[in-house]
From TrEMBL:
InterPro entries: Polyketide_cyclase/dehydratase (IPR019587), START-like_dom_sf (IPR023393)
Name the UniProt record assigns to this protein: Uncharacterized protein YndB with AHSA1/START domain
Length: 153
């Protein structure tokens, strides 16, 4: 495993109750509408819950690649997280009630670093870890702004 920034995090406050936000962020196929990197998500099996698996088609310009994910945390109206099998990162949404609605925190954790193949691809194809992590952070900001627009519409 390779060491990368262990945590990337962004947040936004929305004018909606946690249950309303939860219904959106756990609807994995909708991620393609919000995330600049996700082109499509195919959920395998029944409704999304702990242990649900999915195939994700990601894009960056002309590059397209699949990843496989599994839901590893599912705490109704509070926290939803999935681990990307291909690089071992964990992506999550945490919902915190506020006086005006809900604070959504999106995180990308790499507690064990990333796989060797992910490290090599990030260095050779994506321009290095620093630039790619900045791109992921910008993508989180875009994702959260788009979720906010949908949840408040």
């Amino acid at each position: 495993m390779s060491n990368v920034e262990a945590l990337i995090e962004e947040s936004i406050e929305v004018n909606a109750e946690p249950a309303t936000v939860w219904a959106l962020v756990t609807d994995l196929p909708r991620m393609a509408k919000w995330s600049p990197q996700v082109a499509k998500t195919i959920v395998r099996g029944g409704p999304v819950g702990l242990g649900t698996t999915a195939i994700n088609i990601n894009r960056r310009g002309p590059l397209v690649w699949p990843t496989r994910s599994k839901v590893v945390r599912f705490d109704q109206d509070r926290e939803f997280a999935f681990r990307i099998k291909d690089n071992t990162t964990i992506w999550s949404f945490t919902l915190e009630p506020t006086a005006g609605g809900t604070r959504i925190v999106q995180r990308r954790e790499a507690p064990d670093g990333v796989t060797k193949i992910s490290d090599v691809l990030t260095k050779r194809v994506f321009g290095g870890h620093d630039g790619f992590q900045a791109e992921l952070r910008d993508g989180m900001k875009q994702t959260l702004k788009r979720i906010k627009a949908d949840v408040e519409a």
